[in-house]
Structure prediction request, 73 residues.
Amino acid sequence: MRVTIKGQVTIPRNVRERLGIIPETEIDFQEDNGRFYIVKTTKHKITNKFEKLRGIATAKMTTNEIMNLTRKI
Prediction:
């Protein structure tokens, strides 16, 4: 297996099939005693930075408080 200039590798088809990895699947690498393992993650990629604020702002907050939250992301 060869690493590209961008640091990318192609995960072999049989490995992708066994792990259930399809396009857009989030994966992670875990290290154990110097060995790395590919694992599917349950994390969902946040596509919109404002989605991070979902459920944080309340009706009791002032406009300034909400704006301060948005400036922090």
Notes: The helical segments are 13-19, 63-72. Residues 44-73 form one domain. The first strand starts at residue 27 and ends at 32.
